Each structure stands twice: as C-alpha cells, then as structure tokens.
C-alpha cells in the first residue's frame, strides 16, 4: 500500500426512484478521509442502493456524489477506482488465490514485477501469503472473503465499498472477520464504507454509523453517540433494545420531566411541552437494594425473568409505566428473582432520553 491518505466522500441530496417507488430519499452524508462508515438499516431500507450510487452502478434520480470535493456523479464505475466486496461477488474459481488478487492489476496493465510485488504485499496484509497457489474451493469461507478483500485492495483504491461481506458466515467466523476487518482498516488507513443490517457489527467496527429506515437517513454519528442519544424511536429500537415511556412532557432545568399517571420521570434531551416519548435502555435500569435511592425510582412486580448466565433479563410490571425490561449483570442483582416479587427500580436521569416519533 502506498502512503497516500484516504479520500473524503460526500453525498448531497441523493435520491433514487423506481417508477413511483422511492428507494432512497434525499440522503446527504459526509465521510471524512480514512474513516470507517457503516450504513445500517433493516432489509429493504436502501443500503445497497446508496452503495451502488456511490460505486456508480446505479444512477441517482437526484443529487450528487463528490470525492474530495469533485463531482463524480457522471463518472462511470470503472473509472472511479473503488474497491468492492459485495455479497455474491464471487472469486474466479479457475484461478489461484494469487491470480484472483492479480486480476485488477492485469486489467490495469501493470508490469509483471510490480504486479507480483503488490499481490505478495496484499496477501501478506490479509495474512494469506501461505495460500497464494490454492484455488478458492480449497479455502474456508472466511479465507475466501479475505481473498475478496485482497482483490479489492490490491490496486490501492480511493474507497473500499463493502456490502454485507460477512453475512454469509457463521457467527464465530463473522466475529473473527470483524476483528480482522477493523485491523485491516487501521493498517491501510483508507476510507471504508460498509453496509450491514447487523447492529453489533456496526457498533464494533465503525467510526460513524448512518442509520437508514425506509429509504431515509434517520441519524448519523459515532456509535456511542447514536446509542446514548438516539434521535427517534426507530433508532433507539434498532440500535440495541429499549423501553419506551409515553407521557406528557414539561421542561425543567435538567432536561424534560415526563408525567404519566401519578409518576414523573426525569429525563434528558429536548421535547416541546405536550405528548412525548422517552427511550430507556434495559441495562441502565437497576433493581434497588433496600434503602438505596436513585434520581428515578419506580415500584413494580416481577412479571417474568430469565437467567442468561452473565446476568438476568427481568420484566417488571409497573402501575403507571407499563412493563419495563431490565437487564442486570448477575453481580448487581440484590435478590433472587421470582415471579410476583415486589421490586423497586431505579435509573439516573441521563438514562431516560427524549426521542421523536419517526415520520410516517
Ligand atoms: N432495480 C430495482 N427496481 C425496483 N426496485 C428496486 C430495485 N433495486 C432496489 N429496489 C427496491 O428498493 C428498496 C431498497 O433496496 P436495497 O437498497 O437493496 O435495500 P437493502 O440493501 O437495504 O436491503 C427495496 O424495496 C427494493 O426492493
Ligand atoms: Mg442490500
């Protein structure tokens, strides 16, 4: 790999319509040089369509794609010089690993000596230097994906585009390749755009996540920022799990106060006075020991519980707030749960975050 820095990508008001169907609506996004951005959303939310517009295989109905500030919307895909690893973008079965990786360099008519050197360096990068002479059928699924990564990186692309490259692998292998992909990104220092519907993958790999719902970009930010401050009900529910509490909001100095029945919940964030919604993550609620206090305290009874090894998942029925899901590490729970057992739940104000309803 050369020492060049990564490239910055900018999407400006990108839309894609198929007849009257809107696959992507008005997507704008900035990806800084050398960043790892993940497009995260459920199936059919428009992730692949956005990636294909970045790659140049799908023509936007509206909007522009810019690379380092230069408009490339009309540049054909083969002239964009982007590396790609797509689902089902298979290796050539009749070629060896080295020949597969050399292929983009042959297309670019590189001389033999430089080609061989680059192939060796790139196979080294993905730790497949021992496998250069094998054919794809002689490799595991994870090794094949590493060859695909090497083939996408060997010509020193301006961007690496990845469309669910790990989704066909089993859970353990997927976790291993996630770690490898992250290390690879660090080593090559290039801009990576990854597509996934797997929220854990997005959280663990990305510098930034862009969340898509029904063709719209709903929120973009660092993984922890999105997790801690989801903007909408959809984001809170899709990235992790959440309880939702609906009520009437009032402002106070610390954020918002939500009234529901006789209960007041202190929360953070902004909501105009009137009907409002709070997101409250199960792992931010604790079961309080006797005499223990918290900024928010609510009484209830255990409606259901299950033991998860590392902890417990408990459902608590409350009078005003309905059922609340609580996840507790085993060491933190002050009692042995049982159905019908009265408990006091507590959480800090910062755990209850005002979120907007999603647009219909
Ligand atoms: N060529 C096409 N013609 C018509 N509809 C399409 C086409 N490509 C994608 N779509 C539709 O656009 C929506 C978004 O698709 P896609 O970007 O593949 O979603 P994702 O990758 O998030 O699963 C889906 O409803 C899909 O059926
Ligand atoms: Mg897709």
TrEMBL record:
Name of the protein in its database record: Spermidine/putrescine import ATP-binding protein PotA
Domain ABC transporter: start-end pairs: 9-239
Catalytic activity annotation: ATP + H2O + polyamine-[polyamine-binding protein]Side 1 = ADP + phosphate + polyamineSide 2 + [polyamine-binding protein]Side 1
Entry similarity comment: Belongs to the ABC transporter superfamily. Spermidine/putrescine importer (TC 3.A.1.11.1) family.
One of the record's GO molecular function terms: ATP hydrolysis activity
Record keyword Membrane present: yes
Keywords, in A-Z order: ATP-binding, Cell membrane, Membrane, Nucleotide-binding, Translocase, Transport
UniProt EC number: 7.6.2.11
Keyword Cell inner membrane: no
Gene: potA
Any one Gene Ontology BP term: putrescine transport
InterPro entries linked: AAA+_ATPase, ABC_SmlMolc_Importer, ABC_transporter-like_ATP-bd, ABC_transporter-like_CS, Mo/tungstate-bd_C_term_dom, P-loop_NTPase, PotA-like, Transp-assoc_OB_typ2
Classification via PROSITE patterns: ABC_TRANSPORTER_1 (PS00211), ABC_TRANSPORTER_2 (PS50893)
Pfam family, one: TOBE_2
Gene Ontology CC: one annotated term: ATP-binding cassette (ABC) transporter complex
């Amino acid at each position: 790999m050369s020492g060049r820095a990564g490239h910055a990508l900018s999407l400006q008001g990108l839309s894609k319509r198929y007849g009257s169907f809107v696959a992507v609506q008005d997507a704008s996004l900035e990806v800084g040089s050398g960043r790892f951005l993940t497009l995260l959303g459920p199936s059919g939310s428009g992730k692949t369509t956005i990636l294909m517009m970045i790659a140049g295989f799908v023509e936007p109905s509206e909007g522009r794609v810019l690379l380092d500030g230069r408009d490339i919307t009309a540049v054909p895909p083969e002239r964009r010089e982007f590396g790609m690893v797509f689902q089902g973008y298979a290796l050539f079965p009749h070629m060896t690993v080295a020949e597969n990786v050399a292929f983009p360099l042959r297309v670019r008519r590189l001389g033999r000596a430089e080609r061989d050197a680059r192939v060796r360096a790139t196979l080294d990068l993905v730790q497949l230097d021992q496998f250069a002479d094998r054919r794809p059928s002689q490799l595991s699924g994870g090794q094949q994906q590493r060859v695909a990564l090497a083939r996408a990186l060997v010509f020193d692309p301006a961007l690496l585009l990845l469309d669910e490259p790990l989704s066909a692998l089993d859970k353990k292998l997927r976790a291993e390749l996630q770690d490898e992909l992250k290390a690879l990104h660090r080593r090559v220092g290039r801009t990576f755009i990854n597509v996934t519907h797997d929220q854990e993958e997005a959280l663990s790999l990305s510098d930034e996540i862009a969340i898509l719902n029904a063709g719209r970009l709903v929120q973009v930010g660092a993984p922890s920022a999105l997790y801690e401050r989801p903007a909408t009900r959809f984001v809170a529910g899709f990235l992790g799990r959440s309880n939702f509490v609906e009520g009437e909001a009032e402002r106070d100095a610390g954020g918002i106060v939500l009234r529901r029945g006789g209960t007041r919940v202190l929360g953070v964030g902004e909501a105009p006075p009137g009907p409002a919604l709070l997101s409250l993550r199960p792992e931010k609620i604790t079961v309080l020991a006797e005499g223990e206090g918290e900024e928010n305290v609510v009484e209830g009874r255990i409606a259901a519980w299950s033991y998860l090894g590392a902890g417990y998942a408990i459902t608590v029925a409350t009078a005003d707030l309905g059922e609340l899901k609580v996840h507790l590490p085993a060491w933190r729970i002050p009692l042995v749960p049982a159905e019908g057992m009265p408990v006091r739940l507590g959480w800090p104000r910062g755990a209850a975050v005002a979120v907007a309803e999603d647009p219909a």
